[in-house]
Structure of SpoIIE family protein phosphatase:
Amino acid sequence: MTPDIQRPDDTQRPDDIQRPYETRSPGTLAEEPPRNAVPHQAPTPLGRLVATVERLRREVREAHAAADGRALVELAKGILIGQLSCTPAAAARQLDELSRETGLSPLELAADIVNQASRDHVSEVAAAFARRTGTPEPAERSTTVSVRLRTAESGVLAAADDTQAVAESLLTNALGPLGADAVAVWSAAPDGSLALAGHAGFPPGEAARWRHVPPGVSTVARLALRERRLVTLARIQHDGPPSIGHLQRPDGGRMAVPAGTGGRIHGVLEICWPQPLAPQPPQIERQVEALAELCARTMDAAPTADPGALDAVLPDVAELIDLSEGLHDPAVVLTPVLDHDGRLTDFRIRHASSRFVDPAGRPRGDVNGARLLEAYPMAGGESGLFDIVERVHATGEPFRAERMSLTALVDQIPLTSVADISVSRHGAAVLLIWRVEDETARLADLLQHAQRLGRIGGFEENLVTGDITWNAQLYALHGLPTTAPPVRLRELPGYAHPDDSAALARFLRAVLRYRRPASVNLRLRRSDGITRHIRVVAEPVLDADQRLHAVRGAYQDISAQHWTEVALAATRDQLAHTEAESAERNRLALQLQHAIMPPTPPAIEAPGVRVAVRYRPAETESLVGGDWYDTVVLPSGLVMLSVGDVAGHGIEAATGMVVLRNALRGLAVTGAGPAQLLSWLNTVTHHLAKHVTATAVCGIFDPSTRVMRWARAGHLPPVLVRDGEAEAFPLIEGLLLGALPEVTYAEREVRLEPDDTLLMYTDGLVERRDSSVQDSLGHLMNAAAACAGDLDRQLDRLLAESRSDTDDDTCVIGIQVG
């Protein structure tokens, strides 16, 4: 039972006008204190005045709640009068007796009586709380819901002309017990804007800020209107768009539901909670939808039509029919068809305009009065036409689309046509206009776009009458306004560059005198000072007597093509010049290299030793490298042997090789050892040869003692062949030349035996892209060990069996001890 409410003067209120929000519903989110509790005031004149104002406000609200309760009781009495055919007094006594017998309050009993009699959405929502899965729902739970919803309905109907009072009644009677602390009722305009029709729980300043929401602004209400369903946001600040009161409730939850009847959406009911909103059960959502339906009834002033009959033409529909007859495109006027529960099921074709053409060939009379899905069942399929009409009818926002596919069934065969569609709502009706795409107009449109994209202008000149026809693109090519007189074909030389006069004269003779098609490229000088490169194509038009009647043709702007060809020609010339320069540089580098290092120089003979050299240049002239070799007998009788490789290819590598080779030969005259020679050569490389790095190995051989002193700068070690076995010298430290300004190199001695062969080489002999240096060096030692015979044959065989695939220069020095 609902507890009684104490008045401020501690008097008891009657049982049948209790405040319904004193009992929580199953969907209550959180217990809240009395909505208008007044804090303790000091006994001052101002405090007493505040207390008096709050008391009067509370009494007014209680009076409104009592009036809502009395309206619900009176409604139940009216139902009893109709069912029992009794007087109002007898109905009141019957209600009191039923209340005592059932143990329910008159307000709860009245709600049950109304639910049983109406069987509407509100009663369905109340019954849903009683049909809970799992444990049975207590009886008073559904009764409380019924009381709350029916009391809210009474308040809404009583204040149907005052949306502000409707909002306050909803918050007080139904939404407050659910934990909500504010409510907003939005009305939707056909242009997509929203207006705040009523509110409760928001400060006046906040409501004034949100009194109008223009079209296209994303809000919570707009989201519900666009999706046409109930929308729940746990936290408005984080989960969704802003809305009224979002600054005062940054973590509060929101629920918005479209308010509509008969398939039309008149507005949105938006409910605010002060705290985050947990997921709600379906019963709560249905209760909110029922409240939104109550709001829609107050916003919809149109009379409800019989859903099953074809009504007489309403005044607004008659005006719409007159409007459709004044259109040049086919149009139909549609009105909604509702079921017995007031839900939209279809649209009826109230009128088809005189320009209406049915794809199936039916006359207008067979279509007028039919339902849309019955006359055109394909409208509910992939085309989505029915969904579009339904959305426009619901929201009022017009819809327009170009080149939309429409499908109709003709003898059970789907035929598709392309049309421009326009759908708009006018009152309770919908106007559907379409323009089927004409094939001729479509081809003309395609031709116009092709001419625009190709910068082509067409013309036709009647030589008999003197009439000239230009399209808009041709005026643009000439730089003339569309109101200017066209340029005649014979006047064209006055607009062309003088250098093109000869070619233009031949063109005009071919067309006008010899009557054959011709074309010419010319430079068109426009009045704005711009010169365009134009190609003119023309053909003669002959009459029945084979006389020249007219000339038609086209102008095409080829300026971009012309300048592209000029740029390509310049690029080709530059490329040819660059290739010639590169070939000349490679030729000079190759000549320089061959002049210093011939491929097969004569062998060097010294006491107790024989030295032979092989040089193999790169097969590709553009890859002329910096490999070098040098063998020279010093004044002291010692023999200096060296090989090296400058990084890179081309003339820079060849000139760098010359510098280093000559520098090393000059330094060797000092009698210094190989380590010192490489140290000095590194200084030369770093300071005197710009941007050059190189590897080298240098040896000084004493024929009298057969001792070889050697040092390396990042180069591969020499290979010694003795008694049919080959072995590489152990690696010693030595940084490549030119990397650092000062480098100290290590030096080693090796005593050679008679018949020993020592090989010094560059990496072009062994390097492969698919093998490591160690594998390639191993192959070289195997090949060297297998070589027998004199020194020249050994070197030739090593070059022939080389597996190198880098196409690099190769130098090999062979030293054979006698």
